[in-house]
Write a structure and sequence with these properties.
Strand content: 15-25%
CATH class of one domain: Few Secondary Structures
Structural class: alpha+beta
CATH topology of one domain: HU Protein, Chain A
Radius of gyration: 48 Å
Number of strands: 13
Largest sheet: 4 strands, antiparallel
Oligomer: single chain
Distance between the termini: 41 Å
Length: 396
C-alpha cells in the first residue's frame, strides 16, 4: 500500500493547525490579521504561513493521522513515521536540502533547519481579498467635504442690467409668436388627417398580400462546439504518448534490474567455480607430490626448487580491507544490515552499484599474522553468509 506522507501532513496542518513528526520536528500554521500600513494608505489583507521548528509541539502527530486514515497497527504507523523522518534526516545530512512535494523545502543551516513554503501552497493559503488602496476613499471624502461646504455658502443672484432685461422681453415675444405658428400647423394637419380617414372609409377594402418571409436557421456555434473535438483529440493523443513513454521506462527498468541480478548471480557462480577449481587443483597437487615422493625420493630437492619458481607471488596487502555483507534496493534492508554492522563494532561502508546499495565495513588488514580466509569465514558465520572481499580482490 502506497502512503503519501506529505499530503497527510498538509491535510493535518490545514485542518488542525499543526503536525508533529517524531525525531524530526513540528509544522505549524500561523495566521496574521489585516494591517494598516504606516502611511495609512493601504489595508493589507489577512495572511497565513507555515513554519517549522525542531521541537515536538502540540497534540496532533503524524502517527495519529496515519492511524485515523489507514488500517495500520500502532507499530506499523511508528515504522512509517520513522522511515519518513530517517529519509528526511539523511537527505539533510547528505545534500543539505530536502524538497517535500507540495509542502516546501527543508534546508540545513549550520546548527538549525529552516523551512521555505512552496509557492503553490502559499497561493492556496493566501487566496483571500487583495490589498485595498485607501487613496481613492480619502479623495472621495475630501470631495464630499468640499461639496458640502459649497452647498452651505449662499449664492448671490446675478444682477441684470436694463439692456439684458430688454433682450429677455424680446426673446419671450419671439417665443410666443413661434408657439402660435406651430399650433396653426398642427391644426391644419389634423384637418387633413380627418379628410383622409373619411376617404378611406368610402372606398372598398382591398386585400393586401403579405410578403413571404423566409426563416433561415443559423446555428450559434460556441467556442466549445468548435474546439471541443480538437481538445479531446489532443488529450487522447497526449494520454497515449504518456502511457507509451511510461511503459517504455518500466520495461527499461525491469530489463536493467534483471541484467543487474543476472550479473550478480554470474559473479557469485564464477566465484564458487573458482573456489572449487582451486580446491581441486590443491588436492591434485598434493596427490602428485605424495606419489612422486614415494617413487623418486631423490628428486624432492629439484621439485621444491621448481615449486618455488612456479609459485605465484604473494599478494601485497592494503592498509585497509573492505568486506561487503550484502547489496540491497530497499532502505529498510540497508538500515537493518547497517545496524548489525554497528553492533559488531565496525564502521559502516556503503557504495552505489547500479540500482543497488552495497553495505559492508572496513577494517585494518596490514597485519601479516591476520588470516583473511579465517576472518571472512567468521564474518559469514556471524553477519552474512554471502559476505565477500571488495578490497583486496579475493575469491574465498
Amino acid at each position: 500500500m502506497q502512503v503519501n506522507v506529505v499530503n497527510i501532513i498538509i491535510d493535518a496542518i490545514l485542518g488542525k493547525g499543526s503536525c508533529s513528526i517524531e525525531s524530526l520536528g513540528t509544522f505549524t500554521l500561523n495566521s496574521q490579521s489585516a494591517i494598516l500600513t504606516k502611511g495609512k494608505t493601504e489595508l493589507q489583507a489577512p495572511q497565513k504561513s507555515i513554519t517549522f521548528s525542531e521541537e515536538i509541539v502540540g497534540d496532533v502527530t503524524l502517527e495519529d493521522e496515519l492511524l485515523s486514515i489507514y488500517p495500520f497497527s500502532p507499530n506499523k504507523a511508528k515504522k512509517v513515521v520513522s522511515i519518513f523522518s530517517n529519509k528526511v534526516i539523511n537527505g539533510l545530512l547528505n545534500f543539505d536540502q530536502v524538497n517535500l512535494k507540495n509542502l516546501g523545502a527543508l534546508t540545513q543551516r549550520e546548527d538549525n533547519i529552516t523551512f521555505e513554503l512552496s509557492e503553490q501552497l502559499e497561493r492556496i493559503l493566501n487566496r483571500t481579498l487583495p490589498n485595498i488602496d485607501l487613496n481613492p476613499l480619502l479623495r472621495d471624502k475630501k470631495a464630499e467635504q468640499t461639496n458640502a461646504k459649497e452647498q452651505l455658502t449662499p449664492i448671490a443672484p446675478p444682477t441684470k442690467t436694463a439692456k439684458e432685461a430688454e433682450k429677455v422681453i424680446e426673446n419671450k415675444e419671439v417665443l410666443d409668436v413661434k408657439k402660435e405658428v406651430v399650433q396653426d400647423k398642427l391644426s391644419a394637419e389634423r384637418v387633413q388627417d380627418h379628410a383622409r380617414l373619411d376617404f378611406d372609409k368610402s372606398e372598398p377594402a382591398k386585400s393586401k398580400e403579405k410578403p413571404i418571409q423566409e426563416f433561415v436557421y443559423e446555428e450559434d456555434e460556441s467556442f466549445l462546439s468548435r474546439f471541443l473535438p480538437w481538445i479531446l483529440l489532443l488529450l487522447t493523443l497526449g494520454a497515449v504518448y504518456f502511457g507509451i513513454t511510461k511503459f517504455i521506462q518500466f520495461a527499461k527498468q525491469s530489463d536493467d534490474q534483471s541484467t543487474v541480478s543476472q550479473h550478480i548471480d554470474e559473479n557469485v557462480d564464477n566465484e564458487t567455480i573458482q573456489v572449487d577449481s582451486i580446491e581441486q587443483s590443491d588436492s591434485a597437487d598434493e596427490e602428485m607430490n605424495t606419489a612422486e615422493e614415494k617413487e623418486i625420493p631423490t628428486n624432492t630437492a629439484k621439485e621444491k626448487t621448481t615449486q618455488k619458481e612456479t609459485a605465484p607471488q604473494e599478494m601485497v596487502r592494503p592498509d585497509e580491507c573492505i568486506i561487503i555483507a550484502g547489496s540491497y534496493m530497499l532502505e529498510e534492508n540497508i538500515d537493518d544490515m547497517a545496524a548489525k554492522i554497528r553492533a559488531m563494532g565496525y564502521e559502516v561502508y556503503t557504495e552505489k552499484y547500479g540500482y543497488y546499495i552495497r553495505v559492508g565495513f572496513a577494517f585494518p588488514c596490514n597485519d601479516p599474522d591476520l588470516n583473511l580466509d579465517l576472518y571472512i569465514e567468521e564474518v559469514r558465520a556471524k553477519l552474512s553468509k554471502s559476505a565477500w572481499y571488495l578490497v583486496p580482490d579475493l575469491s574465498i
